[in-house]
């Protein structure tokens, strides 16, 4: 009987086939290899109960949140002082008029208060011998208010005949803090004093009113020319689930052309009150053109 020799090529062919099958599996689309929806485990085919991000091809234009400088109030210190506490939040914090922002002490202001107290004690004698007695009191009051004391502080001084040791800085208006220029236990130099009301002062806070926030974006000329003041566009905010929640109204299409981007025009928008609370000066957002806003968030059914 002739015995046939064992063939060693057969196992090698099987190994090669298995290797090719493994490589094909790796090259398959990720969505086909791993999809954790309920539809993969006996649920309704193709039904998704979660929000799916829209396609990357949806156009959007980077935009920056800005502050209208015409609607910003500077909080200025006009005496040399030491900051004892900063009570405000960081830039972007919403504040109400009269809300405490910081506290300070000032030897210079103590001297001014003491001078006013002596004048106030002698007011009856001053008015009896001088025609300008009342004017001196008014001038002294104005000086204290201008240097940082509140109306309540001045009333307290007149009632107790004692200087206010620690003075509170209050927010002048409702709005957003856009700058904080002081820290705790810091010395503030008010600048050169050349007269009663002429100290240059040092800006310690900036507060913008609620309508001061603007959005500016560079948009292609073709889209910008079709926009009109009053048009509503959608703005994509970081962390927002839907573009519809972030509406902004076109304020103007600026005629100025940036040499670096001659193909674009700057569009200025006013954010709606609902989303203005989520915006902060300097924040980057994405402006969506009208025909792309609906594609920003897509639901699959």
TrEMBL record:
Gene3D superfamilies in the cross-refs: 2.40.30.170
Gene Ontology biological process terms in this record: copper ion export; plasma membrane copper ion transport
Residue runs in coiled coils: none
Cellular-component GO terms for this entry: cell envelope
Keywords: Signal, Transport
Name of the protein in its database record: RND efflux pump membrane fusion protein barrel-sandwich domain-containing protein
Signal sequence region: 1-34
């Amino acid at each position: 009987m002739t015995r046939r020799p064992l063939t060693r090529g057969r196992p090698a062919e099987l190994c090669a086939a298995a290797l090719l099958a493994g490589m094909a599996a790796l090259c398959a689309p990720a969505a086909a290899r791993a999809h954790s929806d309920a539809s993969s485990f006996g649920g309704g085919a193709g039904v998704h109960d979660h929000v799916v991000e829209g396609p990357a091809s949806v156009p959007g234009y980077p935009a920056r949140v800005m502050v209208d400088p015409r609607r910003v109030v500077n909080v200025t210190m006009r005496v040399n002082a030491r900051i004892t506490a900063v009570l405000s939040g960081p830039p972007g914090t919403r504040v109400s008029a009269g809300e405490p922002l910081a506290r300070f002490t000032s030897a210079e202001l103590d001297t001014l208060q003491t001078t006013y107290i002596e004048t106030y004690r002698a007011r009856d004698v001053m008015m009896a011998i001088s025609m300008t007695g009342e004017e001196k009191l008014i001038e002294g009051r104005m000086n204290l208010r201008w240097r940082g004391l509140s109306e309540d502080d001045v009333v307290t001084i007149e009632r107790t005949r004692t200087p206010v040791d620690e003075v509170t800085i209050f927010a002048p208006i409702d709005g957003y803090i856009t700058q904080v220029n002081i820290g705790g236990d810091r010395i503030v130099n008010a600048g050169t004093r050349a007269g009663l009301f002429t100290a240059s002062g040092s800006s310690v806070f900036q507060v913008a009113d609620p309508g001061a926030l603007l959005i500016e974006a560079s948009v292609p000329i073709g889209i910008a020319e079709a926009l009109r003041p009053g048009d509503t566009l959608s703005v994509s905010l970081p962390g927002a689930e839907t573009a519809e929640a972030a509406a902004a109204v076109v304020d103007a299409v600026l005629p100025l052309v940036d040499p670096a981007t001659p193909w674009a025009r700057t569009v200025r928008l006013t954010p709606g009150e609902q989303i203005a609370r989520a915006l902060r000066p300097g924040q980057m957002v994405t402006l969506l053109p009208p025909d792309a806003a609906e594609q920003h968030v897509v639901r699959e059914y």
